[in-house]
């Protein structure tokens, strides 16, 4: 039974996803502090959070069973990603589910700011009919600058276009071509602050974006502009903004997020007449909460069941087009690495991944974490290694990884050959996905075989001579071990050969030792794919 801790308020409809998996138990315990989480996290396989729970290295260290942290939302600045990677914990988010909701909230804030709606509401319900103080401004014909042209920034830009606004944008990862298609004029931050009537930020909070708008930018800003932050507290320098408001450079600001959340009761934003605030409500609609919760719950189930998943934050992203080509080879790569590690003596120094066929024409780097996971699982144990930390663990052990590609003209089948060089030897195996049968080990060193990558097999190196197969069968039979299938590969009559015996039951070390005493047998290795 997998145990999942939900430590922030998450949509019940989303959590229902877990009931479809009958081996998952969900506990909802919200509002815990770091010490309280540390005390209980050791029981859980997965932690599901929004932005309130700060997932610190200490929590991860205590989370000895923790395989995945799911963030039902976009920003993962509340999770220590470096620590998660080193503890081998996969961090996933739900990047798409709250895009529209947050762009709508940004727009609600912009309109409220332009028309003083919160201030007017407060006065009106207090019994004052004040139609003079709250003269607003139109959005039509104004310049809106969007800093961060990702999912939310672009949706905000779309809506602003419909309101007749001119859009400027800044995003170092956004091309002129994309900008042209979206009707956005790209500009530097300096150009933007001199021209924009409204600025809205939609970047993540990183070292580069912290105080992206600060004293220096306010000093050259268009007088009377308005500022919106529905992304993360800290992207706009709060203190510098207060000064700019007092100096009349900024006419008003709308903030959904704060440098410290929740802000202290005496935070100056809460009392300022020209600042409107909401308590981090950007993603808070029924639709968005359901979307992100369903999304992240589905991925958590996949991860717990060792199935392919998406939206990992602490692993390099694989573009969709490449993913569809390479994903079928993930399990094959891992199983080949696993087989090879069990066949090789000595400490691993180098792992070589050699691909042929169509695989030789695409980027095979995404296979590396899977191969290394397979290789290191044998040495470190399945609980210690996963695809998030396998590259990191290999680096710590000075294992080098080399990618090679066999040209298409030489080989047309999609094959993956993994070599391991250790302190004492070099061995290699080849795998492929064969039509109608699926993943198969197709070569052990130079010997052709065809073996499914599951269960237990014995890999026996021997001399090709009569009687060996019978002796092996007899010895296994005497020990009550049923042979499911057997294959022999050799390159020449009477030369070296390999025998692959698929067995239905685990063999003991003694049986392996006895097998090595049969004349002509050079080496016996048990390969267990279900490690
Ligand atoms: N208030 C709320 O409740 C919510 C807040 N957010 C915040 O909004 C942010 C944006 O979300 P999405 O649009 O979904 O993310 P996204 O990843 O699609 O877009 C972020 C964009 O920022 C750009 N960027 C990165 N560094 C930059 C820099 N130095 N200068 C300018 N642009 C830079 C990236 O290139 C990317 O295009 C998230 O990081 C999250 O923190 C997201 C959802 C709800
Ligand atoms: O998705 C995000 O990045 C958000 O900021 C939303 O945060 P929340 O899930 O509402 O705590």
Automatic annotation (TrEMBL):
Q: Which SUPFAM superfamilies match?
A: ACT-like, Formate/glycerate dehydrogenase catalytic domain-like, NAD(P)-binding Rossmann-fold domains, Serine metabolism enzymes domain
Family note: Belongs to the D-isomer specific 2-hydroxyacid dehydrogenase family.
Q: Taxonomically, what lineage is the organism? A: Bacteria, Bacillati, Bacillota, Bacilli, Bacillales
Its keywords, alphabetically, are:
Amino-acid biosynthesis, NAD, Oxidoreductase, Serine biosynthesis
Q: Does the keyword Amino-acid biosynthesis apply?
A: yes
NCBIfam families assigned: PGDH
Q: What pathway is it annotated to?
A: Amino-acid biosynthesis; L-serine biosynthesis; L-serine from 3-phospho-D-glycerate: step 1/3
Q: Does the keyword NAD apply?
A: yes
InterPro entries registered for this protein in UniProt: ACT-like_dom_sf (IPR045865), ACT_dom (IPR002912), ASB_dom_sf (IPR029009), D-2-hydroxyacid_DH (IPR050857), D-isomer_2_OHA_DH_cat_dom (IPR006139), D-isomer_DH_CS (IPR029753), D-isomer_DH_CS1 (IPR029752), D-isomer_DH_NAD-bd (IPR006140)
User: A Pfam family for this UniProt protein?
Assistant: 2-Hacid_dh_C
Gene coding for it: serA
Function, in words: Catalyzes the reversible oxidation of 3-phospho-D-glycerate to 3-phosphonooxypyruvate, the first step of the phosphorylated L-serine biosynthesis pathway. Also catalyzes the reversible oxidation of 2-hydroxyglutarate to 2-oxoglutarate.
Domain (ACT) ranges: 457-529
Q: What is this protein called?
A: D-3-phosphoglycerate dehydrogenase
Q: Reaction catalysed by this chain?
A: (2R)-3-phosphoglycerate + NAD(+) = 3-phosphooxypyruvate + NADH + H(+); (R)-2-hydroxyglutarate + NAD(+) = 2-oxoglutarate + NADH + H(+)
Gene Ontology MF term list: phosphoglycerate dehydrogenase activity
Q: Supply the EC number(s).
A: 1.1.1.95
């Amino acid at each position: 039974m997998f145990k999942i801790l939900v430590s922030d308020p998450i949509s019940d409809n989303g959590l229902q996803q877990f009931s479809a998996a009958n081996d998952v138990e969900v506990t909802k315990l919200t509002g815990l502090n770091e010490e309280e989480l540390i005390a209980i996290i050791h029981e859980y396989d997965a932690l599901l959070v929004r932005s309130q729970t700060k997932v610190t290295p200490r929590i991860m260290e205590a989370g000895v069973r923790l395989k995945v942290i799911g963030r039902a939302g976009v920003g993962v600045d509340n999770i220590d990603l470096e620590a998660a990677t080193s503890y081998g914990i996969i961090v996933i988010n739900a990047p798409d589910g709250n895009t529209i909701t947050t762009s709508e909230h940004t727009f609600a804030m912009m309109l409220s700011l332009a028309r003083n709606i919160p201030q007017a509401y407060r006065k009106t319900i207090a019994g004052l009919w004040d139609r003079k103080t709250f003269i607003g401004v139109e959005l039509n014909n104004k310049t809106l600058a969007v800093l961060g042209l990702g999912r939310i920034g672009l949706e905000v830009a779309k809506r602003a276009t419909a309101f007749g606004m001119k859009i400027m944008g800044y995003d170092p990862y956004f091309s002129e071509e994309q900008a042209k298609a979206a009707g956005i004029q790209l500009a530097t931050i300096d150009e933007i602050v001199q021209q924009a009537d409204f600025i809205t930020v939609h970047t993540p909070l990183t070292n580069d974006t912290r105080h992206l708008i600060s004293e220096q930018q306010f000093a050259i800003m268009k007088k009377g502009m308005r500022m919106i932050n529905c992304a993360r507290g800290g992207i706009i320098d709060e203190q510098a903004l207060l000064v700019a408001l007092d100096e009349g450079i900024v006419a008003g600001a709308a903030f959904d997020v704060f440098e410290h959340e929740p802000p202290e009761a005496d935070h100056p934003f809460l009392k300022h007449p020209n600042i409107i605030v909401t308590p981090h409500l950007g993603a808070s609609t029924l639709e968005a909460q359901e979307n992100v919760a369903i999304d992240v719950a589905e991925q958590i189930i996949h991860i717990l069941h060792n199935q392919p998943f998406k939206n990992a934050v602490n692993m390099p992203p694989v573009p969709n087009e490449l993913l569809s080509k390479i994903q079928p080879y993930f399990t094959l790569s891992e199983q080949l690495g696993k087989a090879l590690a069990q066949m090789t003596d000595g400490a691993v120094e180098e792992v070589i991944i050699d691909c042929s066929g169509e695989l030789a024409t695409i980027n095979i780097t995404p296979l590396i974490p899977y191969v290394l996971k397979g290789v290191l699982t044998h040495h470190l144990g399945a609980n210690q290694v996963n695809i998030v930390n396998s590259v990191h663990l290999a680096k710590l052990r000075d294992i080098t990884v080399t990618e090679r590609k066999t040209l298409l003209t030489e080989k047309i089948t999609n094959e993956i050959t993994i070599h391991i060089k250790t302190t004492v030897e070099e061995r290699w195996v080849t795998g492929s996905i064969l039509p109608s049968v699926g993943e198969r080990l197709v070569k052990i060193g130079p010997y052709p075989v065809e073996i499914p990558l599951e269960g237990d097999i014995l890999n026996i190196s021997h001399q090709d001579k009569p009687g060996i197969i019978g002796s092996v069968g007899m010895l296994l039979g005497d020990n009550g071990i049923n042979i499911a299938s057997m294959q022999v590969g050799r390159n020449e009559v009477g030369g070296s050969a390999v025998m692959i015996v698929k067995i239905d039951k685990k063999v003991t070390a003694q049986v392996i030792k006895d097998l090595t005493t049969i004349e002509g047998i050079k080496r016996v290795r048990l390969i267990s794919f279900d490690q």
